[in-house]
Write a structure and sequence with these properties.
With 425 residues, the chain is an alpha/beta fold. The protein is built from 14 helices and 11 strands. The relative contact order is 0.09. The structure holds guanosine-5'-triphosphate and magnesium ion (MG). The site of guanosine-5'-triphosphate (GTP) has 18 residues, from helix 8.
Length: 425
């Protein structure tokens, strides 16, 4: 017997290479991880295949035959499927996990492949999809993060979605709780492959994220919205985007007024003043908390009053206290909606600390900015899930007014599982 080795970034990649080189004849002897995944470096796996010496050259010839003489695609893909299925069994034995492919795609006598004709392209596509799914399953079997919090092991079909969600920065406890719910409630029939599992899990995620739909003021009422949050997160830019949205971009044009809390007299008003000038909007500055009610009163002709605040570190209790004093001094009778603005680029734990410190202001909704600067969105999901505070808006770039998105669970979960894509805004 001749021993051959093949390497790849995943065991299935190595298997594919083996398949390309020696066809179906070999027997998988061993799979090992020869290089661990590290920052900036992919993992490397090696598989060891044993093959009868006299079969090496003939097999090689078989693979190298011209394209025109190769078997029809459907038959080939079927073969790869069973080949991988066998390999999966052997890999399973080595890694001591159950075979994910055992019952799926077991050939039965009635399933013998009919001859392929051009009109059967659909079937070929479906075969390829099945094959891709199997490869994914094998890949994910080697994803070595375990979930000790789950009462049962994660079935292979769930591994991809679990990995995606985990890599998105979702809090581990939240993810395990969601996975447990999915495992308990998902109809058996839907567990057939990882794409139905993904769809089901996506639906659960969507249902779990609280969203506040935008509601415009009805006749005779007004909306007073205050943006609070850490320094430099995009509060003023977002106020400008909202102001433009309400006064120009919606079907109905609303009257918008602006208020700036400049209780530290640091000239925080200048940036917003420029936007106010450009959009011809009334603007009031509040330096001392008792002036807050007067500022709101003087904008009573407006449908929307948007209040900008100076940024403060979540640990700067004195600055947050000043905002609280303004809210406390509000005798105008107008209800102030407090929106906590946070960047999506910080991890869940930091978002939670920020939320806890600003929560003394009575946060009504969450707004996340800088979605264009991050890869994972699980942190956002987890904060909304944990605090049960609905998300109202997302900011997806620096451009005023276009880079603003009204929150929706579809949009967030799409970002979470597939990344932010400007074309889907
Ligand atoms: N990439 C990106 N940049 C943003 C986004 N929103 C705001 N910015 C930028 O972030 C920077 C700070 O924005 P500001 O609106 O001044 O932030 P702020 O929260 O008002 O800052 P302070 O008033 O100093 O607390 C500016 O350069 C904005 O253009 C966003 O969604 N994506
Ligand atoms: Mg600002």
């Amino acid at each position: 017997m001749k021993i051959l080795t093949f390497t790849g970034h995943t065991p299935s990649e190595a298997l594919k290479k083996a398949k390309m080189e020696i066809g179906d004849e070999g027997m998988l002897i061993e799979t090992r991880e020869i290089q661990k995944k590290a920052l900036g470096r992919e993992a490397l796996y090696e598989i060891v295949i044993g093959i009868d010496e006299d079969k090496v050259s003939s097999t090689y010839k078989k693979v190298k035959k011209p394209l025109s003489k190769q078997k029809p695609l459907k038959e080939e893909s079927q073969e790869i499927l069973f080949d991988i299925s066998n390999a999966a069994k052997q890999i399973s034995k080595i890694s001591n996990v159950t075979d994910p492919l055992e019952d799926l795609y077991k050939p039965t006598s009635s399933q013998s492949a009919p001859p392929v004709e051009p009109k059967e392209l659909k079937e070929i596509k479906s075969e390829i999809n099945k094959l891709t799914d199997k490869v994914k399953i094998i890949q994910n079997m080697f994803w070595n993060e375990k979930s000790p919090n789950l009462s049962s092991q994660i079935p292979p079909e769930f591994a991809e979605i679990y990995r995606l969600a985990s890599q998105s920065g979702i809090n581990k406890e939240h993810l395990d709780a969601l996975m447990q719910v999915t495992l308990e409630h998902m109809p058996l029939k839907m567990r057939e492959n990882s794409s139905t599992v993904k769809r089901y899990f996506q639906t659960i995620l969507r249902k779990m994220v609280p969203i506040r739909r935008e509601a415009t003021p009805s006749i005779g009422t007004k909306k007073v919205i205050m943006l609070v949050g850490p320094t430099g997160v995009g509060k003023t830019t977002s106020i400008a985007k909202l102001a433009a949205r309400y006064s120009f971009l919606m079907e109905k044009k609303y009257k918008v007024g602006l208020v700036v809390l400049d209780t530290y007299r640091i000239g925080a008003v200048e940036q917003l003043m420029q936007y106010a000038r450009m959009m011809k909007l009334g603007i009031e500055t509040v330096v001392d908390p008792p002036e807050f009610s007067n500022a709101l009163e003087s904008l009573k002709y407006c449908d929307y009053i948007l209040i900008d605040t100076m940024g403060s570190s979540p640990y700067d209790r004195v600055k947050i206290e000043k905002i609280y004093e303004c809210l406390n001094a509000n005798s105008s009778g107008y209800n102030v909606d407090v929106v906590l603005v946070m960047p999506s680029s910080i991890k869940y734990e930091d978002l939670k600390v920020t939320y806890d410190n600003f929560s003394t202001l009575g946060v009504d909704t969450l707004m996340f900015t800088k979605l264009d600067e991050t890869m994972g969105f699980g942190n956002i999901f987890s904060l909304a899930y944990e605090t049960k505070k609905p998300i109202s808006y997302f900011s997806v770039g620096q451009e005023v007014p276009e880079d603003l998105v009204c929150a929706s669970s579809d949009f967030l979960i799409e970002c979470l599982l597939n990344g932010f894509n400007r074309s889907k805004v």
